[in-house]
Specification:
Layout: H1 7-15, H2 20-31, H3 35-46, E1 49-51, H4 60-83, H5 90-117, H6 119-122, E2 123-125, H7 132-143, H8 154-172
Antiparallel strand pairs: 1-2
Length: 173
């Protein structure tokens, strides 16, 4: 795997790797883990950077996520649930759903752009010289460090370990 300075391109390439999308969506849908943060954590590892913190609610990325990206996802999920019950207009409903999906992905790209632009705010060089597998695990742990949002559970821990292994495999590729 080669290093990529463009976080969006890295995110797309990583997401397309075997089993990654499935695992990320499981973490997002089952545990409300921010997929962009997990991808950001891995991307930082490719540059030997350690994640120190995540955006605060009033940071650009935090505001964008809460006010734009998450509401778009909620609307898209609502439409996905409702479209199965709609009769007579399936093509237009599907077209609307696809446009919402496109808008949600565009919003996620903006969130990643905020994270990439503020790299020095959230990360620092890996001065402790952790091996890449340990650095990935450390960075992922920061993504899920809020005990209120992510109560300790064996299921979440296993899902994160599976993600970390997929990330390590991707880095070795």
């Amino acid at each position: 795997m080669t290093k990529q300075s463009d976080l969006w391109q890295f995110a797309n390439d990583f997401y397309a790797a075997p089993d990654v999308a499935k695992q990320l969506l499981a973490l997002q849908n089952n545990y409300q883990v921010n997929v962009n943060y997990l991808i950001y954590a891995l991307w930082l590892s490719t540059f030997n950077y350690q994640l120190r913190s995540l955006p605060a609610a009033d940071d650009g990325a935090g505001v964008w996520r809460s006010e734009i990206a998450l509401p778009l996802r909620t609307l898209r999920f609502s439409l996905r649930s409702a479209k199965n019950n709609m009769q007579g207009i399936p093509e237009t409903v599907e077209a609307c759903y696809q446009k919402m999906l496109t808008a949600e992905l565009a919003a996620e790209r903006v969130e990643l752009d905020f994270l990439e632009a503020d790299i020095k705010k959230y990360a620092q060089p890996n001065v402790e010289k952790h091996a890449v597998d340990k650095l990935i695990a450390i960075n992922v742990a920061v993504c899920c460090s809020d005990a209120e949002l992510f109560p300790k559970s064996e299921e979440l821990q296993l899902a994160l370990e599976k993600y970390i292994q997929l990330a390590i495999n991707y880095m070795e590729y």
